[in-house]
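Hey team,

Sharing the N-acetylglucosamine-6-phosphate deacetylase run so nobody has to redo it. Sequence (348 residues) first:
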Amino acid sequence: MILEDVLIVDPVDGEYVGTVEFDEVIHKVVKTNKSNYRAILMPGFVDPHIHGIRGIDTMRATKKEFEMFKEYEALEGVWYFLPTTVTAPLEAIPHAKLPDGMKLHIEGPFISAKRKGAHNEIYLMPPSNKLFDVIPAEKIAMVTVAPELEGFDEFAKSCREKGIIVSLGHSDATFSQARDAYEKGTRRITHFPNAISSLHHRELGLVGAGLYFDFMVEVIPDGVHTSPEFIELVFKIKGPDKLQIITDSISATGLADGKYHLGDLEVFVEDGKAKLNNGTIAGSTLRYSQAIKNFARFTKCSLRDLVKVSSYNACLELGLNGGRIVEGYPAKLILTNENLDIVKIFNF
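Structure output:
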């Protein structure tokens, strides 16, 4: 396959018009001096935090549904994602049904009751290595944990030894507790700034720590979880190297308003907004193809920066061979028009 006169967007080499020759692997990339192009070529997206889509829920999915999950995400331009759990008994986490190569983001039960959001409080527990007695470590890519909970340090150390990323979230941690976690090696925050201790001028909390320290932070650019201006503010402060776009989407995504489930909790979707019956936001109905458009509109970022926050940063963090358009890399590519509408996907 040869694509000629496309705007190639690479997170390292930048944006330029050229030609790409590939099959499953990129064989040749040629830069030209042309300024006009027919379409935009970007690396496939990565979503490290997604609960479900089109009727599929991570906690209830069958093996067949996990395969469908991959197909639905491919239509959104996402070549790799982490099916994300919600708080439940450890034995209820569906690791045995995962396809080869797919890993989980464990969100709950090691979170704060005060900042639980749309998680079932009756199953909350302190962080424990019992997790690895129930779920093989090789099936887990990431765990969201509240650092103020007893046993956090020992658990975070065990995760690092097993190659599992610890992400701070659903936490009422003080700035001091967040700093301690950062200094001991935890460098990530889940769906920033939602469900974490807020910023105050005398106690910066986890929101303040996220801005003050060099944390990688997830953001949900749906205009519901945060205002567009907050996304722009975080982008200005953190820069494109320390942000990742996520959807946090649930099974209602791509479907009509109505009643759905997030784990064992009932979720009500109205005007595309997912909430529990008490009004608590319960994930999103954001599709990744819309998320990148929103982020670009909210921040006015360059395409190069958009590729960083939608693909490259997550690939680096997760150890994935992707996120670049250079010779030798897998040709998991997306062709879009000027409006960032997906025209064609390749190899996923």
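The mean pLDDT is 97.

Ping me if you want the raw files.
A.
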